[in-house]
Amino acid sequence: MKFVCDSLDLSDAAVTVVKACATRTLTPVLECIRMQVKNDKVTLSAYDGELSIEKSFKADVLEEGEACVNGRLFTDFIGKISHTQITVGTEEKGLEIRYDDSRSFMQVLPADEFPLLDCGDVAGSFEVEEGKFKNLVARSIFCCATDDSRPILKGCLLETEGKILRASALDGYRMATTECEIKNGDDGKKIVCPARTLGEIARMLDGGEKTLTVEFSQNHLRVVVDETTLISRLYTGEFVRRENIFPPSFTTEVCVKRNELIESVERASVLIRGEKNNLVIMEVKSGAVYVTANSEIGNVAEKVSAELEGKEIRIAMNGKYVLDALKALDEDEIVMYMNTPIAPFVLKNKENKYGAYLILPVRTTS
Questions:
Q1: What is the pTM of this model?
Q2: Within the chain, where are the H helices?
Q3: What does each C-alpha distance from 90 to 76, 110, 289 come to in angstroms?
Q4: 73 vs 18, 42, 46, 107, 267, CA distance in Å?
Q5: Mean pLDDT of 318-343
Q6: Is residue 325 a contact partner of residue 336, using CB atoms and an 8 Å limit?
Q7: How does pLDDT run across 59-93, given as a tens digit for each residue?
Q8: CATH of span 2-113
Q9: Where along the chain do its domains lie?
């Protein structure tokens, strides 16, 4: 195996795929990037048992072949080389890297030990604008669980309904549900995609109106963006139905300026930084929401103008969860829907109701 290429092309491909290299594994080859050199193209790929990323670029191929090299070491090393032509090939010592008047060697593993991941027979697909999908991901995956107690909650439910793609995510304390329009797609399909996978797809996208095609089989998902292919395992099992989580009606509706509430909760959060539950109290009264927070450092009490429909209420909540939801919404005014101090409450845009965020309140003794 031997090829000549621009060092920036090699570095860019390595940086893209190294995100799929395993970090803690008993299988050393999963820590590697596989290099495949064929025709006039070099293809780098990595796979950690759940996520596979592959990227290709043009090169001057002197000898076809393939090899596996430690992904993070290789990526870091290539990134330290100044912009120049670089020659990479396999020798008896391992992988030889020539640049300017220098050369270095790295150990390699046999490429035939590298596992191949295939999406399998396509069971469904949908097409969506890159910008819309990127926003959908940003508005939902922060509500996915991060622990392994219920693995399926580390994923986001994607479901198609006509020309709508809906995403739902929850971690046991909060839930997000949001949607966007799709161009084409199979109706009535449901998959649970790892949050990490969706995050990597979003990072691959430039946004805008370019079309993204998402294909999936029973157990895998695949997307292709330019010269990059991503394949991911899907979670199996029954995902929590949002209809069973969101209350059917509310006794309190309060409309408030989104940015004013964000600024108030952010100031309150400064004084409770490091405190358990990031506890913020909201007292909803006619004409205003009163935001308070107390800690050993100090306390804050602020008034935010609001319009109330229904009953007055005092409710304790996790300030971080509220801020995450407020920042995911995008209109000047939002509406908070509440029932009792211990019942879940919901935040939505005032006009466009495509997104809804449910949060469990914090139980207090007073």
A1: 0.92
A2: 7-17, 71-79, 130-138, 195-204, 258-271, 319-328
A3: 19, 11, 67
A4: 10, 19, 13, 10, 42
A5: 97
A6: no
A7: 999 999 999 999 999 999 999 999 999 999 999 88
A8: 3.10.150.10
A9: 2-113, 124-243, 247-359
